[in-house]
Every structure is written in structure tokens, then in C-alpha cells.
Design goal:
- The protein is an alpha/beta fold.
- It folds into two domains: 141 residues, Zincin-like (2-Layer Sandwich); 90 residues, no CATH class.
- 50% of the residues lie in helices and 13% in strands.
- A six-stranded mixed sheet has the order 1-2-3-5-4-6.
- α1 links the parallel β2 and β3.
- The chain is globular, with a radius of gyration of 17 Å.
- It binds zinc ion.
- The site of zinc ion has 4 residues, from α4 and α5.
Length: 233
């Protein structure tokens, strides 16, 4: 099998229906069982909502410790971070951590976050995008605002959460919006995230999840400034 980046050499895997789950030889069996249950459930929820099945081989890596996650990705983040750091024409990867407090407590917000990352994997595949951390998204065929906004709208729908509309008076232009979303240290990232979600949600209210997904380029080519204006009216 081809090597998937960010998976430590010593990790083992087990194959579920769709996902290949990678874990440390020291990992607690209950944790693997829990992850395999919710990830298959989350995936089938997204498949049904978008009426689309993934073709790329789907992998999920459960790091045993935050230190291992940092070492494997060469990125500094805390234990609650989940990411979809890699997608090629054949394989895609989601990473999560056993030390995540929400994973430990079996909190529904962990599944919510997992659904969000799965939604990214769907968009990467449909748009023919490839992704690897730190390449400045040069092979991404979808802008960050649509990618993040859409992933949020999918997880809101699957988890039965209403989007908490906040003030959209912030006047992010398209480029600034993408810049704040691509910079995980930007203080304006949370506001940019909500703003992007609001825009995509306004598309979904009118057209539904599946239509917006399958016709993503129609929406990503829109002048979002004008659209937000209509949405606020
Ligand atoms: Zn995301």
C-alpha cells in the first residue's frame, strides 16, 4: 500500500466499511471501537445528505498523544484539533487525537467536528482538489470561504444545530476572508468563519445542500459581497 503522510511508522490499521483507521499499538481498544462507530455513522450521514459516495480511499489517524500529533505533522496545535491535512487523487486523510477532551468524554461535539472534516473530504474529491499541509493550497480548486462555510453547514445539518447568526457588519472582501481563514493564528479567523458560514448557508437555504455541493463552482464564482447584501436585506 502507498504511504500516507502524517501517519507514524509504528501505527497499525484496521479496515472498516469505508474508513481505514490508523492507531498507536498502545491505543485503548474502546477508543478505536468508539471512533470506528462514529466515523462510519458520520460518513453515511454526509453521503445521504449530499447524495454522493467518496471514491478516494478514506483514512483516519487517531494519535495516541498530542506530542505524537505534533511530531507527525510538524505543526503545533492543541489536543482538540482535528484536520483533513491530506487528499490526493487516490487517498484522503483525517487526523484526530485520543487526548482530545471531547473524544475522551464522548461529547457530541467531537462527532460534529468529524463531520466537518468529512465534508472537506467530499469537497476536495468533487472539485478534483489535492491538499497537503503547508503548500498554500496551490492544488485546491475551491476557495477557503466556501470550503469552511460548506463544512459548517453540513455539520450543522447532520447534528441538528441551527446556525447561530451573528452580526455580519464586518466587511471582509473575498481575499481578506480567505486570508483570515487560511491563517490559523489570525484573530479575525472566528469572525471570518462565521461570515463564510453565513454566506454558504444563504445559498443552501435557497438551493439545498446537494445542489450547492454539486454546483459548487456556480457559487464560488459569485460576487459574495453582493450576495451578503441580499442576505442581510
Ligand atoms: Zn474546516
Amino acid at each position: 500500500m502507498k504511504k500516507i503522510p502524517y501517519i507514524p511508522e509504528s501505527y497499525l490499521y484496521q479496515k472498516e466499511n469505508y474508513f481505514q483507521i490508523w492507531f498507536s499499538p498502545t491505543e485503548n481498544k474502546d477508543n478505536i471501537l468508539f471512533l470506528s462507530g462514529i466515523i462510519e455513522d458520520a460518513l453515511s450521514g454526509v453521503e445521504t445528505l449530499l447524495n454522493y459516495s467518496l471514491n478516494r480511499n478514506s483514512h483516519v489517524c487517531l494519535y495516541a498523544t498530542n506530542a505524537e500529533a505534533i511530531q507527525a505533522t510538524k505543526r503545533n496545535f492543541n489536543s482538540s484539533m482535528l484536520l483533513a491535512p491530506f487528499s490526493s487523487q487516490t487517498d484522503s486523510l483525517i487526523i484526530c487525537q485520543s487526548e482530545n477532551p471531547k473524544f475522551q468524554s464522548r461529547d457530541n461535539n467531537f462527532k460534529r467536528h468529524l463531520v466537518h472534516e468529512i465534508a472537506h473530504a467530499f469537497l476536495y474529491e468533487l472539485s478534483g482538489s489535492e491538499k497537503i499541509l503547508g503548500d498554500n493550497n496551490i492544488q485546491m480548486n475551491i476557495p477557503a470561504w466556501f470550503n469552511e462555510g460548506f463544512a459548517e453547514c453540513v455539520s450543522n445539518k447532520i447534528m441538528g444545530n441551527k446556525f447561530k447568526t451573528k452580526s455580519f457588519d464586518i466587511d471582509f472582501g473575498r481575499d481578506a476572508l480567505n486570508d483570515h481563514l487560511n491563517d490559523i493564528n489570525s484573530p479575525k479567523r472566528p469572525a471570518a468563519f462565521d461570515y463564510a458560514t453565513g454566506i454558504v448557508e444563504s445559498f443552501i437555504i435557497r438551493n439545498g445542500h446537494e445542489y450547492v455541493f454539486k454546483n459548487f463552482s456556480h457559487f464560488t464564482n459569485m460576487d459574495i459581497g453582493v450576495y451578503i447584501h441580499v442576505y442581510n436585506a
